[in-house]
Amino acid sequence: MRDDDRVSHTHRLVYIRHGETAWSRIGRHTGATDVPLTETGIAQARALGPVLAELELARPTVLVSPRTRAAETAELAGLTVTAVDPDLAEWDYGDYEGRTSEEIRADDPGWTIWTAGAPGGETGEQVAARADRVLARARAAMADGDVVLVAHGHLGRVLTARYLGQPAAFGQHTALLPASAAVFGDDRDGVPQISRFGLVGYAAAQYAGR
């Protein structure tokens, strides 16, 4: 993100990760596979509704990933989807789709998505390019109201990094719980900031998933 791309504004950007799925609960990398929410994920998404109500969103534009788990989370949380944005799809895990990190490292010791990307899938730089496109569209829409993005874990962590002007790998220093919301904005000088992070409507301390 270039400094001249940053525009001070009064509206907010809210990022939401979808609720729990059977794959996300155990850490299976879920990119293109359209895995539905579990009953727990449905409850998590519904519990996010009151959290979003407290934010008092102004004329929100709601963009979601092509995966149905994102749109379902948005609707359960009380949002009305404006459009599907293909750039909000999760990291393309390629050959590692459906595998846990532990399974991958049995064949590829020391692997992390942040340092090596995904063979047959995307690099961090490619995901960052998608996040930059999403942010550019979001900034344009923020002239008219708040913008809500509903998507995935790794994509959201990369988007957080890019909002702060950092490389994709900075995302490894953040964490997004299922059905959690983060609020982004700018200070008076147009400096991008995270104003709230990890907002959930359930007892996160008792959640054992990923």
Automatic annotation (TrEMBL):
Name this protein carries in UniProt: Probable phosphoglycerate mutase
Organism: Tsukamurella pulmonis
Superkingdom of origin organism: Bacteria
Molecular function as annotated in GO: protein histidine phosphatase activity
Binding-site positions, substrate: T30, G31, R69
Region forming the signal peptide: none
One Pfam family here: His_Phos_1
Taxonomic lineage of the native organism: Bacteria, Bacillati, Actinomycetota, Actinomycetes, Mycobacteriales
One GO process term, biological-process aspect: regulation of phosphorelay signal transduction system
